[in-house]
Amino acid sequence: MKLFSSVNDVSNIHQIVSEAISQKQNPFADEQLGKHKTLGLIFLNPSLRTRLSTQKAALNLGMQVMVMNLDKEGWALETQDGVIMNGTTVEHIREAAGVMGEYCDVIGFRSFPGLVNREEDYSEEIFNKFVKFCGVPVLSLESAIRHPLQSLADLVTIEELKKTEKPKVVLTWAPHVKPLPQAVANSFAEWMNKADYDFVITHPEGYDLAPEFVGNAFVTNNQDEALAGADFVYVKNWSSYNDYGKILTDGEGWMMTNEKLKLTNNAGVMHCLPVRRGLELSHEILDGPNSLVLNQANNRVWAAQAVLKSILESLT
Amino acid sequence: MKLFSSVNDVSNIHQIVSEAISQKQNPFADEQLGKHKTLGLIFLNPSLRTRLSTQKAALNLGMQVMVMNLDKEGWALETQDGVIMNGTTVEHIREAAGVMGEYCDVIGFRSFPGLVNREEDYSEEIFNKFVKFCGVPVLSLESAIRHPLQSLADLVTIEELKKTEKPKVVLTWAPHVKPLPQAVANSFAEWMNKADYDFVITHPEGYDLAPEFVGNAFVTNNQDEALAGADFVYVKNWSSYNDYGKILTDGEGWMMTNEKLKLTNNAGVMHCLPVRRGLELSHEILDGPNSLVLNQANNRVWAAQAVLKSILESLT
Amino acid sequence: MKLFSSVNDVSNIHQIVSEAISQKQNPFADEQLGKHKTLGLIFLNPSLRTRLSTQKAALNLGMQVMVMNLDKEGWALETQDGVIMNGTTVEHIREAAGVMGEYCDVIGFRSFPGLVNREEDYSEEIFNKFVKFCGVPVLSLESAIRHPLQSLADLVTIEELKKTEKPKVVLTWAPHVKPLPQAVANSFAEWMNKADYDFVITHPEGYDLAPEFVGNAFVTNNQDEALAGADFVYVKNWSSYNDYGKILTDGEGWMMTNEKLKLTNNAGVMHCLPVRRGLELSHEILDGPNSLVLNQANNRVWAAQAVLKSILESLT
């Protein structure tokens, strides 16, 4: 693999899930594979899980890791072409990406959306430019509209714990105080569609995801209907795609609780973290036996390790 | 050892001092011990000596190190239970600690006190919650009321240089322009009490440390009386414990100088650093032969290495 | 080598260029040399290329690397002697440097000029104090008035690509919106003088570099005259040395373009980066075949590796 930016970059999702589980069982089996190879982790936005889990995965594979928080340690990047750079941006992404490609064999890159201009965000302009100009294999550490390492870890978590071949998986919108990207929801949806589960999305009116991500999912504004018999419930806030980047409702009644859990098939409750307790998810669920959030976080390591292994194997 | 948060976590202080000195003589003797083990260093507050010395100690032991400045690279943590997180805190310490425990075999954690609510600070709430929810061995990189790695390095320094079995050790308050935690003074006092030296504490009125830390020390507001015949003088500012977190005096006359050194038994002068020159300690002392501040800083490595070794040996 | 702060610290520039090219051809040939040696990279100012390339060079040599962004992770340093530190500076450079020398075998240090007091900046006070008080070998990661790792990488780039023994090399001033240090221009000039090329400097009136850096260069305010027949053109902004730290002109007409390239001998165009596109250098040049900026960036690794190798060999 030369690029890991969406589910479409993976030729066989079952194979990469198997690889992740295999890495989990034997974390140091491939520690010679990354010898003399350097992974650069470039963040334009904050990160905790993604940074630590990807760093750990790379170290397990014997790689060297260099972390650069460009937003804090570096400077503002220009992403528009042809402009006169006489303002506050200090370096163009063409040079910045090119230079980092000179120092790294593989690069992980994170850049959040602006949530102002939908067309711009959904074109993945910054991520795609970075990929183009760095000239080395790139894995997404979350881009404007996707978070594929998270989704792969989520898929691994479900595959490890599912009791039926085609579990019912529900993605439910949850309230939040800040407008958040659609990235995690988009990515989860496209991976679930590919996994061919019984996949349902539920959210208040006005929060429909982009059609290319919804795919074949059943969509309803009735959360209770969605939750009925669910094996896994993925809780996540996102801001509106149609009224782009906006918060349309305070979402009263949409928080996931033990009461709602009764509607499900004793579902495992998932969240990518960080989670707002008492707002997105109740304390009782997070502290109870149905929470899978730490399983998901743990699986971030093995998802990253499977992806990095595949990238390392593709290096000449 | 599964936890290093105070002198009480050490079964035998003479043994751990010996271990630190042994590591100093042969820094790479145990470099296989930490193979495939990851140390996370999590800072909610700035650090220079603690970060570098602990990182170095872990590398000497063959560990991988991941540093996370949560205050700068991450986001604000919620520490209260049961609240609705609809404010500025982005993640609860339950999840943040739990996740970091998934990625690290051992964690070092730093969190300073607020210096507003004494009961809260002295309950070590944040540190204790982190320990509880991360689920892996933790060493304190300074908590609200203790700085045990500093104190162990201080003890090593005294043990290396003392000329009598029970040297006279004086902890003297010094002036400062900002209200500082009592952590270093508290910790130094509890380690000196355990070491069973001739231990004296001197400070202006109103700066008494908490009784559980003072222990059997002789306490006086007369600095000259305290310094008389001292073998080691530890200079440190702290804010008031009784009038919690307050500065009660500008401390004129309390700065340690060569003039005062004459009262002592040619004492070694100690400070944990960073030190305010010309305010806490005179330039002449810091630039003179009695200063032990770099000895202490150097011993931070071996203190951390002895603690990490003991923790690594306890991992199954 | 115990110190790398300027071209004068290098006994033979041809030899160190050869060493850099040799490291480039075989990056891991000396990976045992740095075993058990720690490089500290201390930044008082932001860095991208310098940090990543020096970190990579050290890892190639088998060293451990600890990065400290003192401006962000640490605190403000006091550099004046004899003052009462009752203000905003938290630690004196004497202690900060001394402590870091206890933890590192070699230190890289970056400190930019204030551009207010010329005498102070040109005395290299902060850099020299750091060197003095840390007590271990130091390599400059850019000081107030020099950037020697950049210049060595630039020299390697020219040596790799030159077609004549003594190429014509032109350093041309370029417009910028912020007052920048003279460091890169100064350093480039002193390395070019040492290399004994046909070296020309061109800039608008008032932008003369300090005489000790100009050396034997031919200086002209006529850019076209300077560019005529050039083999290499180094484009760089700097603020005024005479009217210290000031911007004297918006520099209209001084941007390097393809039109001006026609005056040259199909010159290779160089810049240390970050570059302001459309202001210092045209988009067409940066995206065209004459740009050497990524060659220079790549050679930063091998320049640093040659310097670090020489320093490591000098350690007892």
Automatic annotation (TrEMBL), chains A, B, C:
<dbReference type="GO" id="GO:0004585">
    <property type="term" value="F:ornithine carbamoyltransferase activity"/>
</dbReference>
<feature type="binding site">
    <location>
        <position position="276"/>
    </location>
    <ligand>
        <name>N(2)-succinyl-L-ornithine</name>
    </ligand>
</feature>
<keyword id="KW-0028">Amino-acid biosynthesis</keyword>
<dbReference type="InterPro" id="IPR006130">
    <property type="entry name" value="Asp/Orn_carbamoylTrfase"/>
</dbReference>
<feature type="binding site" description="in other chain">
    <location>
        <begin position="147"/>
        <end position="150"/>
    </location>
    <ligand>
        <name>carbamoyl phosphate</name>
    </ligand>
</feature>
<feature type="binding site" description="in other chain">
    <location>
        <position position="300"/>
    </location>
    <ligand>
        <name>carbamoyl phosphate</name>
    </ligand>
</feature>
<dbReference type="InterPro" id="IPR006132">
    <property type="entry name" value="Asp/Orn_carbamoyltranf_P-bd"/>
</dbReference>
<dbReference type="Pfam" id="PF00185">
    <property type="entry name" value="OTCace"/>
</dbReference>
<protein>
    <recommendedName>
        <fullName>N-succinylornithine carbamoyltransferase</fullName>
        <ecNumber>2.1.3.11</ecNumber>
    </recommendedName>
</protein>
<feature type="binding site">
    <location>
        <position position="142"/>
    </location>
    <ligand>
        <name>N(2)-succinyl-L-ornithine</name>
    </ligand>
</feature>
<keyword id="KW-0808">Transferase</keyword>
<feature type="domain" description="Aspartate/ornithine carbamoyltransferase carbamoyl-P binding">
    <location>
        <begin position="5"/>
        <end position="160"/>
    </location>
</feature>
<dbReference type="InterPro" id="IPR043696">
    <property type="entry name" value="ArgF'-like"/>
</dbReference>
<dbReference type="GO" id="GO:0016597">
    <property type="term" value="F:amino acid binding"/>
</dbReference>
<dbReference type="GO" id="GO:0019240">
    <property type="term" value="P:citrulline biosynthetic process"/>
</dbReference>
<feature type="binding site">
    <location>
        <position position="176"/>
    </location>
    <ligand>
        <name>N(2)-succinyl-L-ornithine</name>
    </ligand>
</feature>
<comment type="pathway">
    <text>Amino-acid biosynthesis; L-arginine biosynthesis.</text>
</comment>
<dbReference type="InterPro" id="IPR006131">
    <property type="entry name" value="Asp_carbamoyltransf_Asp/Orn-bd"/>
</dbReference>
<comment type="subunit">
    <text>Homotrimer.</text>
</comment>
<dbReference type="GO" id="GO:0042450">
    <property type="term" value="P:L-arginine biosynthetic process via ornithine"/>
</dbReference>
<comment type="function">
    <text>Catalyzes the transfer of the carbamoyl group from carbamoyl phosphate to the delta-amino group of N(2)-succinyl-L-ornithine to produce N(2)-succinyl-L-citrulline. Is essential for arginine biosynthesis.</text>
</comment>
<keyword id="KW-0055">Arginine biosynthesis</keyword>
<feature type="binding site">
    <location>
        <position position="236"/>
    </location>
    <ligand>
        <name>N(2)-succinyl-L-ornithine</name>
    </ligand>
</feature>
<dbReference type="InterPro" id="IPR036901">
    <property type="entry name" value="Asp/Orn_carbamoylTrfase_sf"/>
</dbReference>
<feature type="binding site" description="in other chain">
    <location>
        <position position="110"/>
    </location>
    <ligand>
        <name>carbamoyl phosphate</name>
    </ligand>
</feature>
<feature type="binding site" description="in other chain">
    <location>
        <begin position="47"/>
        <end position="50"/>
    </location>
    <ligand>
        <name>carbamoyl phosphate</name>
    </ligand>
</feature>
<comment type="similarity">
    <text>Belongs to the aspartate/ornithine carbamoyltransferase superfamily. SOTCase family.</text>
</comment>
<feature type="binding site" description="in other chain">
    <location>
        <begin position="272"/>
        <end position="273"/>
    </location>
    <ligand>
        <name>carbamoyl phosphate</name>
    </ligand>
</feature>
<feature type="domain" description="Aspartate/ornithine carbamoyltransferase Asp/Orn-binding">
    <location>
        <begin position="184"/>
        <end position="310"/>
    </location>
</feature>
<dbReference type="Pfam" id="PF02729">
    <property type="entry name" value="OTCace_N"/>
</dbReference>
<feature type="binding site">
    <location>
        <position position="75"/>
    </location>
    <ligand>
        <name>carbamoyl phosphate</name>
    </ligand>
</feature>
